[in-house]
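To: structure desk
From: M.T.
Subject: fold request, one chain
Message: Could you run this one when you get a chance? Sequence is below, nothing fancy, just the single chain.
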Amino acid sequence: MTGLAEILARRIARTGPITVAEYMAAALTDADRGYYRTESAIGAEGDFTTAPEISQIFGELIGAWLVDCWEQCGRPNPVRLIELGPGRGTLMQDALRVGGLVPAWRRAIELHLVEINPRLRDSQAARLAAFSPIWHETLSTVPDGPTLLVANEFFDALPIRQLVFHAGAWRERMVAWTDGMGFHFVLSPGPSPLAALLPAEFPSPDEGDLVELSPASLGIAAEIGRRVALGGGAAVIIDYGRAATMKGATLQAIRAHRGVDIFAAPGRADLSAHVDFEALSLSARDSGAQIFGPVTQQRFLNALGVNQRAASLKSGATPTARRAIDRSVERLTGGAAMGDLFKVIAIAGHAIAPAGFPGPARAASP
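Reply: Done. Structure tokens follow.
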């Protein structure tokens, strides 16, 4: 067992089974042994690859989107430019390169990065030093005010809780430890009050149905909604997941770009679950914000001009480079790749109609 596995096993032996969320939180964010504290997760040498690492176009389009939102809300100065889980800083570096084409925006931004991984902070510092980033452990310590926020593949790693419908009631799925069996699932003995978080129109369950909820995600979505409703601005959330709350387990573990058992090595593999965009939207809306979407990543990037930007980059490029650009766009927008699985919502103040969504929104391109 890993050192963290031993710690969790002793904890369970002492106090009883823990929630899936508690297991995830320990595995991902334990101060000494958590995955996001110790691992270099992103890229070919890591465990997964994100959209900004596939093509510069992704971050560039986000940069144009941010500038467009800033202009719509009256060009506030200063404006808090926030990224949740900024990885190696690639997305923000590309976004800032495009945003820098508007000098007033460059002067107005105050860059805040919510990141807990020391190695990734070092990478972000190297890429973004010219913008004097300020780091935070949580969104709660970022000052209020006009806000532009990006969260790409952030919410999928927040802890979830799982409910199973058994004997006429929703019961919580817990993580237990037994000698000879190791970590395994058990059900709470009584009904779970978390069932109150399910949407009113959620379909009637059958015996054995499972649903995933993320109170942690709802809290952050509510905080984002509060910020943009009171201070103005907009946020874009991009992640893989579902447009509506649905039955079924999606919790997974990834190491070296391959699926592994979620209990195999806590602290050494990435744990994630599909994002419930309906739940995020309702939570942010309850805080007073406007919600746009969800739309697929394919539709969002197409509306922002991904193909036009690709054509611009291919102009004058070598045949090999042109083929690489085409492959990267297909990975970002193709239905069999990221295009349909990944969804996008915008959380905005009431003066903004963000580009890329149905309605009066306008396209933004670099």
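Reply (cont.): The first helix runs from residue 3 to 15. Let me know if you need anything else for the meeting.
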